[in-house]
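Here is the promised in-class demo. Please do not try to memorize the tokens; focus on the logic of going from shape to residues.
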């Protein structure tokens, strides 16, 4: 199939055979990408118009019991200065965020054993009570099904858990043996069954990733049918075993955003901070490739530099308000509009 035909087939049927997907991922010419992005924008505008939804990201702990080879807050990162926010500090972030117009809060952190179900339920319960009109997203890694159920019952609505790669061998290249793709996927299916709006996702250009791996990622997205998909380029972090690896490419990340938009017309798709890190207009380009979400940082300024998943992360010196203003302008400059609504998944 030629590339246009592949793109049109994807738009109509929302999937292609594995080999066609792999072929679509590599070796596109700029005009092929331009066509893909135009189709992706048309689809996204049909569903969500020109709105770009904002999520306030609160990075509330950088303690982590895991040792993922790519991640700057892995348990054996020697220079990570560990912190965790108190319940009160987390609520303060929400308060500031609400004032700035956020109607979705995302609590993200390492897998920190301090945050037991009891502590997490208490935080979720208070956020739910104080801001009943807001969506609450959790991104705190793999937990027991009972834990996910308790947090959902307490008022959490959405859960982000990138699957990282859907290829077994590649998963083992990125993670120590104590972590498994099977368990990661189990968690995602559990979250979905419980009733969360669920986000999976992966890094683009992580060490050892091939076009076949990415085709498997797309296949998995097609099976899971998540409400959100978080993808961004892999960016090396100096304290990790992958410090010397190459970063993921802008072009490939954008192409995957476009492809995912065609596969899942209604999906909530962030233009990530990592994308903004590898190119000064990475997030704008992401939106023009089919993304419709941005996730500015609401973490207190005192801790931002400590949540260093990867090197050179942007916005670590800014106030939350500055980030929102900056993003609003950037989004307006490309003809889209930063939206103050909750931005739930549209069916
Ligand atoms: N502990 C939570 C949150 C992880 S951090 C969880 O397990 O879901 C959020 C995401 O950052 C990860 O899922 C990973 O895809 C991404 N990330 C981590 N290190 C990265 C790096 N070096 N470059 C780009 N993205 C990275």
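The designed amino acids, position by position:
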């Amino acid at each position: 199939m030629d590339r246009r035909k592949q793109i049109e087939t994807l738009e109509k049927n929302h999937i292609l055979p594995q080999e066609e997907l792999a072929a679509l991922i590599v070796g596109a010419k700029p005009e092929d990408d331009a066509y893909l992005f135009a189709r992706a924008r048309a689809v996204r505008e049909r569903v969500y118009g020109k709105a770009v939804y904002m999520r306030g990201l609160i990075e509330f702990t950088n303690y982590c019991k895991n040792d993922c080879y790519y991640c700057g807050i892995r348990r054996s990162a020697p220079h990570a200065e560990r912190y965790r926010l108190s319940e009160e500090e987390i609520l303060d972030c929400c308060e500031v965020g609400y004032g700035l117009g956020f109607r979705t809060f995302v609590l993200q952190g390492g897998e920190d054993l301090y945050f037991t179900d009891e502590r997490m339920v208490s935080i979720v319960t208070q956020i739910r009570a104080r801001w009943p009109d807001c969506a609450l997203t959790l991104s705190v890694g793999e937990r027991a099904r009972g834990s996910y159920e308790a947090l959902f019952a307490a008022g959490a609505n959405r859960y982000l858990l990138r699957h990282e790669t859907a290829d077994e061998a590649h998963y083992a290249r990125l993670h120590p043996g104590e972590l498994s793709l099977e368990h990661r996927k189990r968690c995602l299916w559990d979250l979905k069954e419980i009733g969360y709006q669920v986000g999976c996702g992966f890094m683009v250009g992580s060490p050892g990733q091939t076009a076949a791996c990415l085709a498997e990622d797309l296949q998995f997205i097609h099976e899971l049918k998540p409400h959100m998909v978080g993808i961004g380029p892999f960016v090396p972090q100096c304290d990790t075993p992958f410090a010397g690896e190459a970063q993921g490419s802008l072009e490939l990340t954008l192409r995957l955003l476009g492809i995912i938009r065609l596969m899942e017309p209604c999906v909530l798709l962030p233009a990530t901070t990592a994308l903004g890190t590898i190119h000064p207009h990475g997030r704008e380009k992401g939106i023009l490739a089919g993304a419709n979400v941005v996730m500015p940082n609401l973490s207190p300024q005192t801790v931002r530099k400590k949540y260093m998943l990867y090197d050179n992360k942007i916005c670590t010196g800014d106030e939350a308000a500055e980030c929102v203003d900056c993003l609003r302008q950037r989004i307006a400059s490309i003809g889209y509009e930063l939206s103050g609504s909750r931005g739930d998944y549209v069916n």
